[in-house]
Amino acid sequence: MIVPVKDGAAFLERTLPPLVASLPPGVELIVSDDGSSDASAAVAQTNGARLVKHPAATGPAGARNRGASAADGAILVFLDADVRVHADTLMRLLDVFEDSAVAAAFGSYDATPEARSWVSLYKNLAHHFVHQRSSGEAATFWAGCGAIRASVFRELGGFDETYRRPSLEDVELGYRLRRRGYLIRLLPAAQVTHLKEWSLTSWLRADLADRAVPWARLLRKGHGLPRDLNFTSADRAASLLVGLGCAGFVAGALVPLAALFGAAALVLAIILEAPFLAFCAQRVGVPFAIAAAGLQLLHRIAGLAGLLIGFATPTPRLASTPPST
Questions:
Q1: Checking CA distances to 194, which of 78, 80, 188, 287 falls within 20 to 30 Å?
Q2: For the whole model, what pTM was predicted?
Q3: C-alpha Rg value of the chain to the nearest Å
Q4: By residue range, what is the domain housing residue 11?
C-alpha cells in the first residue's frame, strides 16, 4: 500500500486512520514523502506507516516509484493522500487479482465528496459519473485508487518521472500496459471519498496545464485517445460542438450570423451533456445542475485550448529518462 504525499499532513490525519483500519492482514502501508516541509512524515509514523522520505520534491510519479521500490508485496496498491477509503475499498481492489489475467485495476471517487463548493462538487461528481458509466475493461489507469501487479510494474519501469506535477503519469502507464497486452479493470464499486477543495482557478489551471497539454503531447507521441471514460463518442461530439461554438462567436464580430451558429452549437453541446446534468440535479439540485452545465462548457474549452497549446509548443526536456514504451 503506497501513499505519496507532499505537504499533505492535514489530509493524512483524516485519511490514514480509516486506511489502517481497513488494511488486510499482511499488507504493509508505505508513505512516500516527497520533500514535505510540514508534519506529513510525523503523521505517517504516528499511524504506523513505513516512511520513505526524499529530501526534495520530484513529483508524485517519483514518489510512487520510490514507495514501490521499498515494497515487497506481489500487488502494489496506490492511493492519493487526499482520498479516504471505504471499509471495502481495498478488498474490492485486491479481489480482482484472483483472476490471473488482470494486471491492473482502479476504482472511482464516490458521489459524496467532503468539499462542498460547487466547483469541488462538479469536479468530483464528473469523475464519479464517468467512472460509473464506463466499461469494465479499461484503456488506461488511475493511481488515485489503483493497483497493479508488482512484477508488471517493474517490467514496465514504473511511472514516468518526467511528470513532475500531478498529471497524466498514471494515464501514460496505462498506455504502456495496454501496448504490452495487459488487462486493466475498472472497478466502479471500489470507491474513495475525495477531500480536496477546488477553486475555479485551481481547477481550470489543472485542466489546462496538467491534463489537456500533456494529452496533446501523448498524442504527438502516437498514443490515440481512449474510447471510454471521458472520451466517448458523445464526449468528442460535445467538445467539437463547443469548439465550433467558440469559433462562431469569434467570427460573429465580422459576420453576425456566425454568432447565432455558435450559440446553436453550444446549445447542442449542452444537450449532449444531459445524462451528466440529470445526475447532478438528482445528487445536488437543479440550480447546481445549471451551474454544472456552465462548468462543463469551461472544461471543454480548457481541454481544447490545452490541446492546441500542447500541439503548438515543444515538449520540455527534463533530466529524467522516461520508461521505454
A1: 287
A2: 0.91
A3: 20
A4: 2-198
